[in-house]
Amino acid sequence: MPMRFFQITLPLFIVYLVLTGNLTLPNLVVGLLVATGISVLLPPIELPPFSLARLPSFLWAGFRYVFVVAWDVLKGALSTARIVLDPQLPLNPGIIAIPSGSKTELGTALSAHAITLSPGEMVIAIDDDGVMYTHCLNVDDSARYKDEAQALRKNLLSKMFE
Amino acid sequence: MSIFLQVLAWVFLIFGTLMSLIGVIGFVRLPDVYTRLHATGKVSVFGVVFLLLAADILTPLVTWKSLLLIFFVLMASPSVAHSIASAAYRTGIPITGNRDELATKLDNRPPKGLLLK
Which end of chain A has fewer CB atoms surrounding its CB within 10 Å, N or C? Predict the structure, then answer.
């Protein structure tokens, strides 16, 4: 339980304080109650073990991940906007299977998150083997580049979590 | 506030509004629920991010708050799009287009294996 406190309750508490921006005693008490309540309601989750030696590389990979994802969001939004505004509506939708190649559930979840943010792709379902069934706006392009794109994501994610 | 920041904020404001508008147009024009989710889940979210950036500059009180909100929007929107798409697929809403590798997968094994972890 104390590990759970540092991994879930404390971050939630800090986020609550940042969002309310109010350090008076009543607000501290309410924030602590809300954070405790949420962490009790959450099902038990497995987080990777915390180690201080890996923290710098973890933070650096996380920092890079945020920028890669932000760039993907920008490209994704602009390409989707272009398709929407095109008078011909150049669509070729379909669902393809992309193996996540990650062993942990957290790794698969983050891969799915990154795919959904990247241009024209959205994960619909994940099966037991970690294969992500992805809906694409242009299925031929996505099928052609799926291995390269997934290798890049996996490389970055494995630096963070393995 | 410097004139440069002011202009930047207005550019963000206009761009964000434009993106939100395109998201709505996409919602009307695209053929099925899955492709529509691409428009609302990406273009509109991007619009919200730019509107928040503009608010960040124009109202100095909320600097870290709007950055945190952008982070949460970016974290939450794929999950929302995913769960709507997943629910739509499982209730059998047909998909436009002729390539569907999930359907062939479902023919080979019981649908139970598809349940999300």
Answer: N
